[in-house]
Amino acid sequence: MSFVSHPSCLCSAGNTVYLGLGLVAPSEGIRWIKAGTSIGAFCLGSFVFARFHRYFSPRKRWVLIASYSFQLLMIVIAALIVTLGEEAKEGLGYQVLIPIAVVAFQSSGQAVTSRALQYAGLTSVVLTSNYCDLFSDPNLFKLSNVERNRRIAAPVLLLLGALLGGIWAHTSVGLAGALWTAVALKAAAVVAWVFWRAEEELE
């Protein structure tokens, strides 16, 4: 299972296309099953994370720490399965579907958090609207434009992450190494929330 063909690493629009094509000819491949698994897990994750944040107040420190800690746990599970599990003989089994599902599930938490913090433009899940907002910005060429800078950073950093992940997946490090790197980065995010300076009105 290569990193670049991992459906949870694609946008939901791409997965929907794979799902639709697969439903037309389901016997011709299994990628549509992976895509469907990713979409379903992402939708379920959005449902769960949104209600968790909404119920406990979305911008409280402990809520953000708990949310990201759970996301971290999901990536650890995926990394352990990929590291310790045997490769599925038919290319489709728990060794494939569970990592896809848990990575997609936790990624929805990032999207929910970006909206809870009112930074919807930072989501790395759907970039189409980001590109539209970026190039339709009347202040696109203005020297000081925070929103433009964020909209540029989102796809650039996502592309950089995909490139690094793809490179790692094609080396001896493999997909497991890429996932463990994601674990380290997510853990760093958890620590960052612990020490992030609070806004007085939110404490």
From TrEMBL:
Carries keyword Transmembrane?
yes
Pfam families xref list: DUF1275
What are the transmembrane regions?
32-50, 62-85, 152-171, 177-196
For this UniProt record, give its keywords in alphabetical order, as a comma-separated list: Membrane, Transmembrane, Transmembrane helix
Report the protein name in the record.
DUF1275 domain protein
